[in-house]
Amino acid sequence: MTDLPTRPLGPFSVSAIGLGCMNLSHAYGVPPSEEDGAALLNRALDLGVTLLDTAALYGFGKNERLIARSVMHRRAEFTLASKCVLDVYDGKRGLDGSPEAIARTLDGSLERLNTNHIDLLYLHRLDRRVPIEDSVGALVRAKEAGKIGAIGLSEMSAATIERAHAIHPIAAVQSEYSPAVRNPEVAVLETCRRLGIAFVAFSPVARGLLAGAVRGDDYTEHDLRLTMPRFMGDRLRHNLAVVDRFDALAARLGIAPAQLSLAWLLSRGDHVVPIPGTRRIAHLEENVAAASISLDEAALGEIEEIFAPGAISGARYPAGAQAQIDTELLPDEELEAA
């Protein structure tokens, strides 16, 4: 196993770049074969990645089962994170932050993962029908029972983080963050730093936009980006023109665009841990190598210029998904009509 730089995450020390496992089973068209997914997971561990991030929702449980079959024999080598609240109810995706639903989802995850303990369990989204104190309380009881080791939150605002942290120390907050998506900079990033909470950046290459993976909106069936306004039509064409400048900067620096995005994230604070996902081992190796890249002030300044406020056109989520997002909006952020 290769040694990577590490960063603190609650009681754990994890590799500065983790692995988001979602797209091995979910969200971006037809997933890879189980054999290819297993090979990628094992290669990640070989490269020194020590944070694997999954969720009950991903592939309607298939992602957790993939991890169980692929790498649980190497359990001592990684910190395992999963999520509850978003789950499958009566065969469909649903949101339920009640303590009863959290307990059921957790038990299902433990069974699928073939374990009796998950290191870090996130509340995947805020269920506004349930006080955050009640949802966190369910995870406190799970921790006391030995089923989980630490508590996390996903896509939640600074105010919600403060309320949750008052009930029990929060180990990590996860939100979308990249040079193209700056919502955490409104309040969450600083709140996490002040409270000693790790900030885990998902979609750190903007769902492929900053990794050369999006050149048009001809996605395959069941690709999540088909529902996202900024990834479609004229808005995408506008955004690709912005991204061309980012790609040119990466080329001048002699690194891949994805590496530029990840190195930028690592520069945002010692509490920031990006978790890029990929289906290709070559891209995995490229991502992990970004942990050793340092950007100078000129490069950082150029990224700020490229992604000045308002540079990216289109809403981050469709209206239905945005309704479950608690993270603060940017000033004048474009939203999709319900």
Automatic annotation (TrEMBL):
The keyword Oxidoreductase applies. It comes from the Bacteria. GO terms for cellular component: cytoplasm. Keywords: Oxidoreductase. InterPro entries: Aldo-Keto_reductase (IPR050791), NAD(P)_OxRdtase_dom_sf (IPR036812), NADP_OxRdtase_dom (IPR023210). One of its GO terms (molecular function) is oxidoreductase activity. The keyword Oxidoreductase applies. Residues 16-306 form the NADP-dependent oxidoreductase domain. Pfam families: Aldo_ket_red. PANTHER family: AFLATOXIN B1 ALDEHYDE REDUCTASE, ALDO-KETO REDUCTASE YAKC [NADP(+)]. This is Aldo/keto reductase. It comes from Sphingomonas gilva.
